[in-house]
Amino acid sequence: ISLRPRDRPCSAALSRLRYRSAGSGAGRALKHYLDSSVVLALLLEDSDALKPLQDEQQVGSSRLLWIEVARVIERAVRTEQLSEQDGVAVRRQFQQLSSGLFQLKLHEPVFARSAGSFPLLVRTLDAIHLASAELWLHGDAPSGLSVWTLDQRMNLCAASLGFATPLETS
Questions:
Q1: For the segment 85-136, what is each residue's pLDDT rounded down to a tens digit?
Q2: How far apart, in whole angstroms, are the C-alpha atoms of residue 86 and residue 170?
Q3: What pLDDT shows up at residue 170?
Q4: % residues pLDDT > 70 (the chain)
Q5: What does the pLDDT look like over 4-60, one tens digit per residue?
Q6: Helical H runs in the chain?
Q7: What values do phi and psi take at 102, rounded to 5?
Q8: Over the range 124-139, which residues count as b (16 or more CB within 10 Å of their CB) and which as e?
Q9: Measured between alpha carbons, how far is 164 from 170 in angstroms, rounded to an integer?
Q10: Tell me, what DSSP letter sits at residue 164?
């Protein structure tokens, strides 16, 4: 993701996304797992890649997402790719966006699965994201979850695991 100083905050993009916690409905809705690439594209580049999720109820990510977003914003401010003021605005926008996301714990089962084998070679943080996505299913079929990422290798690996990958490009 290229970081560039912003002329305006991405509040227009964020206003299109209003996640709610899932209710106790009888049917199982598709779950949507977000990785940091797609969230950062929304926050820093006004990407509309997440627009299809605006009415979805089960959207979440690993606690790792919160850490990655904070680190990227901090680095962008320190390297003057974002002004201090824009950094505050982007942090606030992420806080607003993330308040409606399911936050999946980083705990031993995630670490154990992350250390295991995947169909393709993936980076460590991608392995943690994919392990979190798998464990969020609680044993349900992989077809019950879509992985939203702009990272091609992660898309390919997620598809190999049986997840839907709506942002995969050939």
A1: 999 999 999 999 999 899 999 999 999 999 999 999 999 999 999 999 999 9
A2: 34
A3: 61
A4: 83
A5: 333 333 434 333 343 333 333 334 579 999 999 999 999 999 999 999 998 899 999
A6: 11-15, 36-45, 64-78, 84-98, 108-114, 124-136, 152-160
A7: -70, 130
A8: ebbbbbbbbbbbbbee
A9: 14
A10: B
- Other Cβ atoms less than 10 A from the Cβ of 6: the count is 20
The burial of 60, by beta-carbon neighbours within 10 Å (0-12 exposed, 13-18 middle, 19 or more buried), is given as buried
31 pairs with which residues across the strands? 145
Q: Do residues 104 and 60 make contact, with C-beta atoms less than 8 angstroms apart? A: yes
Q: Which residue, chain included where needed, has tokens 């509309």?
A: 48
pLDDT at residue 28, rounded to an integer = 56
Polymer length of the chain: 170
What is the rounded average pLDDT of the residues 138-165? 94
Which phi-psi region, left, alpha or beta, contains residue 94 (left: φ > 0; alpha: ψ -120 to 50)?
A: alpha
CA dihedral 66, 102, 100, 75 (to 10 degrees): 10
Whether pLDDT at 154 is above 90? yes
